[in-house]
Design goal:
single chain; 301 residues; alpha/beta; Rossmann fold; 2 domains; six-stranded mixed sheet; 14 strands; 30% helix
C-alpha cells in the first residue's frame, strides 16, 4: 500500500451563519489507496466536509492540499483528479445513459476504453439507450457511480452511496465500489456502521463540526487487549498500536495482540513502571457502535 499523503486538511473552518455550524478547526490526512469513513450524526459536518474537499464550498480558514497542490490555487486541475457522488444522485435525467456517460467522458477528458469498462463493470449494457428518468433508483446509482469513476480519479467521495437500496442491491453495490476503488483512495460518508466496518480501514468521527476521534479498523480480534492512557506524557512502546485518539480530550487508546502465554499483569506493571499514565487496561470489548454512541452522547473520557 502506498502511504504517501494524498489529501490534507489543515485547520479548516466554515460556518453558514452565527447559528448554523459547518465545521471548525478540522484537520486530518488521507493516504493514497486508503479507505476512510466519515461518521457523525445529522448536522455533524459530513456534507460540509465533502463540499469543501470537492471545491463546492470555500473554507473561511485553513487550507486543503490534494496530492501536494493547494485546492484554492489550482481548483480545476485538482477537481479532475477527484470523483464525487452526492446523496441526491446528480444526473442529467433527460439524457440516455450513454449520452450522460459520454458527457462525463468529454467533461473530464477520460479515455473511451475506460467508458466501455465502466459500462461492463456496472452492468449498464441493457439500459444504455434508455432515458435516465425511466430507470430504477438502483440503476440510477450505477450510472452515477460509473460517471464518478470514468476519469480514473485518485480520490472518490461517496455520500450515502447505498441509501434507498434494498439489502440485495446494497450488497452488490458495496462489492462494486470495492472493485472500482481498488486503485484509489475512498472517503465514505454513511450512517450505517456495518458498512463502515465492511468497507473501510479507518473511521473519522465528527461531532458538532469537530473531529473528535480517529479509529483504526477492524476492532475485533482474539487475544486483543486495550490500553487507554493520557496523551502528552510517556507513551507505551511498540508493539502497542494506536487504535483511537480523543481529539477533544487528552487520551489515546492503544491495542496489543497478546501471545497465548502473555501475562497481562506483568505487562501492566511494566507500563506503570515506565511512567505511562494508565486510564484503562483490559481485553478488547468495544465496538464501533459503542465508541460512536459514547462520543456523540457526550460521555467520552
Amino acid at each position: 500500500m502506498n502511504d504517501a499523503i494524498l489529501l490534507k486538511l489543515d485547520k479548516i473552518s466554515r460556518r453558514y451563519s452565527k447559528k448554523a455550524r459547518g465545521v471548525s478547526d478540522l484537520s486530518f490526512e488521507i493516504n493514497s489507496n486508503q479507505r476512510v469513513a466519515l461518521l457523525g450524526l445529522n448536522g455533524a459536518g459530513k456534507s460540509t466536509t465533502f463540499k469543501l474537499i470537492s471545491g463546492l464550498l470555500h473554507p473561511e480558514q485553513g487550507s486543503i492540499e490534494f496530492n501536494g497542490c493547494n485546492l484554492m490555487k489550482a481548483p480545476n486541475s485538482v477537481r479532475k483528479k477527484m470523483g464525487y457522488l452526492s446523496e441526491d444522485i446528480p444526473l442529467c435525467r433527460e439524457l440516455s445513459v450513454l449520452e450522460h456517460l459520454k458527457f462525463q467522458v468529454n467533461l473530464f477528458g477520460a479515455k473511451s476504453e475506460k467508458l466501455e469498462q465502466m459500462i461492463e463493470l456496472c452492468e449498464l449494457g441493457s439500459v444504455l439507450h434508455r432515458p435516465i428518468n425511466h430507470l430504477s433508483r438502483g440503476y440510477r446509482q450505477r450510472v452515477a457511480l460509473a460517471g464518478t469513476f470514468v476519469h480514473e480519479p485518485k480520490l472518490i467521495l461517496l455520500d450515502e452511496p447505498t441509501a434507498g437500496l434494498d439489502p440485495h442491491q446494497v450488497d452488490q453495490f458495496r462489492q462494486l465500489i470495492k472493485t472500482l476503488a481498488s486503485d484509489c483512495a475512498l472517503l465514505l460518508s454513511t450512517h450505517v456502521l456495518s458498512e463502515v466496518e465492511l468497507m473501510c480501514e479507518r473511521c473519522l468521527i465528527l461531532h458538532e463540526g469537530k473531529l473528535v476521534a480517529d479509529v483504526n479498523l477492524p476492532l475485533q480480534d482474539s487475544l486483543l487487549w486495550e490500553l487507554e492512557c493520557e496523551s502528552g506524557v510517556v507513551q507505551p512502546p511498540l508493539p502497542w498500536r494506536v487504535q483511537a485518539q480523543g481529539l477533544r480530550r487528552n487520551w489515546i487508546k492503544y491495542q496489543l495482540q497478546m501471545e497465548e502465554d502473555s501475562r497481562p499483569e506483568v505487562i501492566l506493571a511494566q507500563l506503570i513502571q515506565a511512567g505511562v499514565k494508565v486510564m484503562r487496561y483490559g481485553p478488547k470489548c468495544e465496538t464501533l457502535e459503542s465508541i460512536f454512541l459514547e462520543i456523540t452522547s457526550g460521555k467520552q473520557h
